[in-house]
Amino acid sequence: MLAGAVALSILLSLILYAVMGGADFGGGIWDLLATGPRAEAQREAISKAIAPIWEANHVWLILVVVVLFTGFPTAFATMMTALNIPVTVMIFGLVLRGSAFLFRKYDPQLGATRHRWGAAFGMASFSTPFFQGVILGALASGRIRVTNGLVTTGYLAGWLTPFALVCGVFALGLFAFLAASYLTLDTKGEAVLQNDFRLRAIWSGLFLGPAAGAVFLTAAQGAPQLFHGLTRWWAPWLLVATSLCAAGAFAALWWRRFVLARVAAVGQVTLILVGFCLAQYPNLVTPDVTVTNAGAPPATLRLLVLALATGSVILLPSLAILFRLFKAGRPKTAA
Amino acid sequence: MDDFFFARSLMAMSLAFHIVFAALGIGMPLLMVLAEGTYLRTRKPVYLELAKRWAKGTAVLFGVGAVSGTVLSFELGLLWPGFMRNAGAIIGMPFSLEGFAFFTEAIFIGVYLYGRSRLSPLLHWLAGVVVAISGILSGIFVVTANAWMNAPAGFKFANGKFTEIDPVAAMLNPASLHEVLHMTLAAFVATGFAVAAVHAFFLLQNPRSVFHRSALVLALAVGCISIPLQIVSGDVSARAVGHLQPAKLAAMEALYRTQAGAPLLIGGNPDDATLTTGYALRIPQGLSLLLASDPGVRVTGLEEFPRGDWPNVRLVHWSFDLMVLSGFGMLAVACWAGGLFWRQGPLSDHPGFLRALVAAGPLGFVAIEAGWVVTEVGRQPWIIYNVMRTGDAVTPMPGIAIPFAAFTVLYVFLAFVVFRLLRRQFLETATDLTVSTSD
Ligand code: HDD
Ligand code: HEM
Ligand code: HEM
Predict the structure, then answer these.
(1) Whether the Cβ atoms of residue B85 and residue A77 lie closer than 8 Å to each other
(2) Ligand 2 neighbourhood includes B373 CB (under 6 angstroms)
(3) Fewest beta carbons within 10 Å, which of A183, A254, B239, B429?
């Protein structure tokens, strides 16, 4: 019960990280892919949209990690051992990306150096979400085995499978789609720029269809338990709901209902993650580490749930203030 | 040099990097809030400009602090899975609370940096106050986790199993109070002196700048008020370590032999083979006096502990002396500042004093790094004091030299770039605001 509540809070943080932080990564992807006469204007719009909130968005990941190691310490130890390599690459990209973004923003000198920062920022924006997808895929693969609390399958198991790699590509596409649909709103009033992002959203949305298919197909081999999970009673309903969101996002983008597009895109990402985690439940690292056998002692879990509840009471209103201030579409003035 | 060595080095390097930004993340918001508060009271535009400039620098520092801190949370598991498997449930709590403190800090730093035109001046200032408070709180939480490694509490340990876990008791362990106090003050000392040094440097080149003069006074006030308190709190720490970790204390003081009326040894060359410390400055009975205010008291030497349980005595002793020396160096500068202030009021016109300030600028950070080496290396070979050895906690993963090399290059490069960015910010200031003597 307690462990379930903590797991749920991890899922919630993960979703929030994906829909907020994920869009920041997506912004980086579009930054690197910015082309044409409006490339600079696109970069400027991305930078402006991300700047005030990326610190806060980034903390969701920290929350995932600390709640994971407090609530499920053995699961954390297992993941960090078996997936040492992809996690290390992922955090390396995280540092590079965060700092490159800052430097590009605060380097008062325009020109060449600023461009190089932009490239580093964009490149790390590719590698980090890719490896995040790979890590999630590896956890579901069933190839990481644990005996007596120790990982027995080495450091390459799970994450070098076609399934995990496809998950990585899917995560990239998802974040790119998310960012482009958000940016249509952030560029309100600049019709041409807005249309650039609208088209990007549509293209990346189209890419997601086959990518999702590939995840599903490779899962049969690459993550049999997850695949099995996807055939439970709720799965068709979830699929329908996800498809409705996807179709809704397309329609909204097509007819330029950008607020609706954002809502639908968020719904889509949320449902995908919920589906993944429901199919994965109760495994944390399939098949040996589960919510029940990896949970911290009740004293810790009880306190953690209490802290999470109190924390949200402070956090959510503060976040609301932040977004009210910067995302309400009022005229923008630089700091 | 094996994987264990590289795991320790990677952890130490990441922490040594992070702590600089963490300390500034605690100290800078205080300075910003003071500057902006002064502006709200006096309405002198120079203070508003100051608050803005400091905030801009803080944004860069905060971002680097955030990403390097994220790396640390992962590294705890990547490098020390044996530790986290058992300790996660016990000290995860302060880290989770820290997570919320960060969140508040990150949110309000966004509000503060980008909300100046959208909030009333008072609300904007209050957002800064929230940043300052949550910065202090995050430091406090994470240091209690470290204190637990030094003075573990809140669990029973038998047959390699941790039972009867009580995370609250773990947070309130006997080392928390002195470490928290000492670290928080350290952040104010280091930030105060470093910022004062930067502005002293520009004042030397440009003695008429009102901007740098006002900045200097604020930063110096923070540094000079905290440094005497810090030295008192260092004494509290040393006494506590004497109780809680006598082997660490003996290594700090290079004391091999247990003795009554123990001398205070400063510097010198501790030699584990002969159990002596040659060439040291010796103050008879000094250590007994400092620790117990009683010149005759017995102090435990390293000889009471098995050789395998000794930390690296030279490193710990020299680091300890370096910290104390830096502390007294800053105290001397603070006394000079006090003297000047007492006699003539404004202190920014004395070139000798300004030069001394510039020289003292790095001392706070030197003391912080040295102090952490004392705490961490002095605890060895234990990762959890008297409970778990560091060697039993390390990851089985081979090839740790590779991430060590990669992160070292990355961090050196980042440090270089941050330095350049900040310097450019200040150079810009220097040309912008040279002769605004109107106020
Ligand atoms: C500006 C920084 C600064 C200054 C001037 C000093 N220290 Fe310090 N010291 C630290 C910054 C620091 C630190 C980096 O913040 C540490 C590391 C862990 C901690 O709690 O604080 C530390 C640790 C530390 C410890 C070990 C605590 C432990 O392991 O639990 C002792 C005994 C002292 N200090 C004692 C002193 C004394 C006697 C000082 C007198 C001059 C002094 N410190 C000045
Ligand atoms: C709350 C904060 C901290 C925590 C939880 C922490 C935790 C750890 C851990 C788990 C290790 C590896 C095991 C060991 O060698 O003992 C370590 C080692 C080390 N840490 Fe810390 N640390 C903290 C703060 C710092 C800071 C700020 C520094 C700054 C310089 C530092 C310096 C070191 C060093 C030098 C080592 C290597 C010790 C050795 O192997 O001889 N630590 N720390
Ligand atoms: C004595 C040691 C430490 C102190 C005083 C300290 C303090 C701080 C402070 C004040 C910040 C705010 C960011 C900034 O202003 O730059 C920060 C950031 C961070 N620290 Fe540390 N820290 C310490 C060690 C650690 C350790 C050992 C970990 C993890 C295991 C850690 C994890 C983090 C994380 C995840 C962040 C980013 C938070 C954000 O995004 O705002 N810190 N730290």
Answers:
(1) yes
(2) yes
(3) A254
Q: CB within 8 A of B282, min separation 6: which ones?
A: B263, B264, B265, B266
Q: How far apart are CA B174 and CA B178, in angstroms?
A: 8
Helix, strand, or coil (residue A240): helix
Q: What is the pLDDT of residues A23-66, one digit of tens each?
A: 888 888 888 888 888 888 888 888 787 776 777 778 889 999 99
Residues constituting chain A: 335
Backbone torsions φ then ψ of B116, nearest 5 degrees? -55, -40
Owning domain of residue A71: 2-327
One-letter amino acid at B371 equals G
In this predicted structure, the answer to whether residue B400 has a pLDDT above a threshold of 90 is yes
User: How far apart, in whole angstroms, are the C-alpha atoms of residue B341 and residue B357?
Assistant: 14
Task: Indicate which atom in ligand 2 lies nearest the CA of residue B76.
Answer: 10
User: Using the 8-state DSSP alphabet, how is residue A18 labeled?
Assistant: I
Amino acid at A188: K
Ligand 3, residue B187: give the atom nearest the CA: 5
Cross-strand bridge partners of residue A150: A147
Share of chain A above pLDDT 70, in %: 94
pLDDT digits (tens, 9 = 90+) for B46-84: 999 999 989 988 888 888 898 899 999 999 999 999 999
Is the CB of B146 inside a 6 Å radius of any atom of ligand 2? yes
CA distance A162 to A143: 13
Report the complex ipTM: 0.90
pLDDT tens digits along B139-180 = 999 999 999 999 999 999 988 789 889 999 999 999 999 999
Question: What's the rounded Cα separation, in Å, for the pair A125 and A27?
Answer: 8
Centroid of chain to Cα B44: 33
Between CA A271 and CA A277, with CA A274 as vertex, the angle to 5 degrees is 150
Helices and strands in chain A: count of H runs, count of E runs: 13, 4
Which of B241, B302, B240, B233 shows the shortest CA–CA distance to B272?
B302
Cα gap B393→B388, rounded to integer Å: 8
Of B56, B74, B78, the CB nearest to A106: B56
Q: Which pair of structure tokens corresponds to residue B289? A: 């006096």
CA of B76, closest atom in ligand 3? 30
Q: DSSP H helical segments within B115-156, as ranges?
A: 121-150
Give the span between the Cα atoms of A294 and A157, in whole angstroms: 20
CB-nearest to A296 from B89, B168, B414 is B89
Pocket of ligand 3 (CB under 6 A): A 55, 58-59, 62; B 18-19, 21-22, 25-26, 61-62, 65-66, 69-70, 72-73, 76, 102, 105-106, 135, 138-139, 142-143, 146, 183
Residue tagged 């001046």 (tokens): B121
Give the integer Cα–Cα distance in Å for B150 and B373: 13
β-strands A146-147, A150-151: how paired? antiparallel
What are the phi and psi torsion angles at B44 (to 5°)? Answer: -80, 120
Q: How far is A119 from chain B (nearest CA, A)?
A: 16
Find where tokens 């954390």 sit. A76
Give a yes or no: residue A335 inside a domain: no
Q: Where are the alpha helices (DSSP H) in A17-53?
A: 22-33, 39-50
Give how many domains chain A has, as a whole number.
1
| B49 Cα to chain A: minimum distance (Å) | 12
Q: What is the pTM of this model?
A: 0.92
Is A76 within 8 Å of B84 when comparing Cβ atoms?
yes
CA–CA separation, B374 and B319 (whole Å): 6
Test B63 with A335 for CB contact under 8 angstroms: no
- Contacts of B226 by beta carbon, 8 Å cutoff, 6+ apart: B185, B188, B189, B192
Residue A111: the pLDDT is: 56
Beta carbons within 8 Å of B310's beta carbon, 6+ residues apart: B247, B251, B272, B302
